[in-house]
Write a structure and sequence with these properties.
Radius of gyration of chain B: 20 Å
Low-confidence stretches of chain A: none
Number of helices of chain B: 10
Order of helices and strands of chain A: HHEEHEEEEHEEEEHH
Mean pLDDT of chain A: 88
Structural class of chain B: mainly alpha
Number of strands of chain A: 10
Strand order of the largest sheet of chain A: 2-1-3-4-5-6
Number of helices of chain A: 6
Number of domains of chain A: 1
Mean pLDDT of chain B: 82
Structural class of chain A: alpha+beta
Number of strands of chain B: 2
Largest sheet of chain B: 2 strands, antiparallel
Order of helices and strands of chain B: HHHHHHHHEEHH
Oligomer: heterodimer
Helix content of chain B: 55-70%
Chain lengths: 237, 226
C-alpha cells in the first residue's frame, strides 16, 4: 500500500503533467485549427451555391473572386463598416428579428448571375445546428443549401449534413404570392397547408433535428425579405 | 487446444518471451471470439447500439476505440507499479481522457473533415466501458507489450461486432451499404419496403442477442460462461 503522501504527490504530478501537455497541444494547434474553421465556413458557403471543390487553394480563390460579403439590417439597409465574419450568428438569432444584423453573402456566377446566401443558426436535438441557404435573384427559388451540426445522432439527425437531404431543397420556393411561407421539413405523412414546392422530407428517426431545421429556416430567412424586396423594386423586376 | 494452453506458461517462464509468442498471440486473438468484449465480456454495449445504424460510423468508431484501448493499455502498463492503488481508477481515466483529447486536437488541426465526422464519437470513447475494463482487468497486471496487443485485440473484437451489426442494420434498414444502394429498385417496385425497426436502437440489441446465441451454440468454450 502506498502512503498518503505518495498518493497525493502522485495525483498532483499527474494532473500538472497532463494539464501542461494539453495546454501545449491546444496552444500549438490553435492557429491550424482556426485556419481550418475559417476555411470550413468558406467551403460551406460555396457548398450552398453548389460548388463542391475540396482543394484549399481553389476554395480561397473562388471565395475571394466570387463572394461579396455584406451586412444588412432588418429594415433593409446595407450597413457599412461591419465585418460579416465578426458577427456572432448565435447572438443575433437570440434578438428580436427587427434588431438583428444580417450577414449576407452574394455569389456572382461566371455568367454574371447572382445568388444570395443567408447563414442560419438554430437548435437540433443535442446541440446547435447551422447552415446556409442560397436563393436565386427572383428571391423566391432556393438554389442550394448546406446544413451542419455540433452533435446530432450519427445516422439519424446527423443526416442533415449529407447531400441527399440537402439536395432536396434545390428548386423549392419560399414565397406563396407575396407571402413568406418558407420550405417545410416534414414527415411524409404530415399535412402542410401548401403544395409540394414548399416541402422536403424530414429524416426518419431524426424528427427533432428535422423540426429544428424547419424552425431555423423560418426564423433566419424571413428577416432578409425586407432587403430583398428593396432590391427587387430598385432593379424593377 | 486445452492441452496446449495448460503447458504453455511453464515453457515461456524459462525462456525470454518472443514478440509474438503463443501467449501474446492469444492476447491479440482471444478477444476476437472466445473473449469478445461485447458478446462475452458484455462491455461497450451502449455505443454498439448507438453507432450501428450505418457501416461507416461503425468502422470509424472501431478504429478510434482500437487506438485508444491499445495506447491507454500501453501507458497504464508502463506505469502500473507506480500507480497508488486507491486512486488507480482516476489515474486510468486521466490517461484515457488525455489520449482522447489529444487525438481530437490533432484531428482538428490536420484532418478537419474527419474530425467533423468524428467529433461525437471521440467523446463517446472516453466513456466506453471496454477501455476502462481492459485497463483494470489486464494492463494493471501485465507487461506493456502484451497489454498493447490486448488493447488492439479488444478494439478489433469490438469492431467486428459493430461492423456485423451495422451491415445488417444498414442493408435491411435503409437498403444501402456504405451509402451505396444494394437492394435493387425492382425489389421496391414489387412491394419490398425497408424495415424501419432496423433504424431504432432496440434492433441492435436483438441482433447482438442473436449473435451471442449463435456464437455460444457453436463455440464449446462458451457453453458454461456466466
Amino acid at each position: 500500500m502506498h502512503s498518503n503522501r505518495y498518493t497525493f504527490i502522485y495525483a498532483i504530478v499527474l494532473s500538472v503533467v497532463t494539464a501542461v501537455l494539453l495546454a501545449f497541444a491546444s496552444e500549438g494547434f490553435r492557429p491550424l485549427q482556426e485556419a481550418n474553421i475559417a476555411l470550413d465556413k468558406k467551403t460551406n458557403i460555396l457548398h450552398s451555391v453548389r460548388l463542391d471543390t475540396k482543394k484549399r487553394a481553389e476554395i480561397e480563390q473562388i471565395y475571394k473572386d466570387r463572394i461579396h460579403e455584406m451586412v444588412v439590417d432588418a429594415q433593409g439597409n446595407e450597413l457599412s463598416g461591419v465585418d460579416a465574419n465578426a458577427i456572432v450568428l448565435k447572438d443575433e438569432v437570440a434578438k428580436p428579428a427587427a434588431e438583428r444584423k444580417l450577414p449576407l453573402y452574394v455569389y456572382t456566377a461566371e455568367d454574371g448571375k447572382k445568388r444570395y446566401v443567408m447563414p442560419m443558426q438554430g437548435v437540433g436535438l443535442w446541440g446547435p445546428i447551422w447552415g446556409y441557404l442560397s436563393i436565386e435573384p427572383d428571391f423566391n427559388t432556393v438554389y442550394g443549401s448546406y446544413f451542419d451540426h455540433k452533435g446530432e445522432t450519427p445516422g439519424l439527425g446527423a443526416e442533415i449534413a449529407e447531400k441527399p437531404f440537402q439536395q432536396q431543397f434545390e428548386g423549392k420556393t419560399i414565397m406563396e404570392a407575396d407571402k413568406f411561407v418558407s420550405v417545410y421539413v416534414a414527415k411524409k405523412t404530415d399535412k402542410i397547408p401548401y403544395g409540394p414546392e414548399h416541402r422536403v422530407d424530414g429524416i426518419s428517426g431524426g424528427t427533432i433535428t428535422s423540426k429544428g431545421v424547419d424552425v431555423m429556416i423560418k426564423n433566419c430567412v424571413e428577416p432578409y425579405l425586407v432587403y430583398f424586396n428593396k432590391l427587387k423594386s430598385s432593379t424593377g423586376e | 487446444m486445452s492441452v496446449e494452453t495448460a503447458s504453455a506458461p511453464a515453457v515461456q517462464e524459462s525462456k525470454k518471451e518472443g514478440l509474438f509468442s503463443k501467449k501474446n498471440r492469444r492476447a491479440l486473438s482471444d478477444p476476437l471470439d472466445d473473449n469478445n468484449p461485447i458478446t462475452v465480456q458484455v462491455l461497450g454495449i451502449c455505443s454498439a447500439l448507438a453507432v450501428t445504424v450505418q457501416v461507416k460510423p461503425a468502422i470509424i468508431m472501431a478504429i478510434g476505440v482500437t487506438l485508444v484501448t491499445a495506447f491507454s493499455n500501453l501507458i497504464i502498463s508502463v506505469i502500473r507499479d507506480s500507480i497508488p492503488g486507491r486512486i488507480r481508477m482516476i489515474v486510468q481515466l486521466v490517461v484515457v481522457a488525455l489520449l482522447v483529447t489529444l487525438v481530437d486536437q490533432i484531428l482538428k488541426a490536420y484532418m478537419f473533415d474527419v474530425s467533423k465526422k468524428l467529433s461525437v464519437f471521440v467523446g463517446l470513447i472516453i466513456t466506453n466501458c471496454i477501455v476502462m475494463g481492459r485497463l483494470e482487468a489486464y494492463a494493471m497486471s501485465q507487461k506493456p507489450w502484451p497489454s498493447f496487443l490486448d488493447g488492439i485485440g479488444n478494439g478489433l473484437g469490438y469492431g467486428i461486432i459493430l461492423v456485423v451489426v451495422a451491415i445488417i442494420r444498414e442493408v435491411f434498414g435503409s437498403g444501402t451499404l456504405l451509402g451505396f444502394k444494394v437492394i435493387p429498385q425492382w425489389a421496391y417496385d414489387m412491394g419490398y419496403v425497408n424495415n424501419g425497426m432496423m433504424m431504432l436502437p432496440p434492433m441492435a440489441l436483438f441482433l447482438i442477442g442473436i449473435y451471442i446465441w449463435i456464437q455460444r451454440g457453436r463455440n464449446p468454450k462458451l457453453y458454461n460462461v456466466s
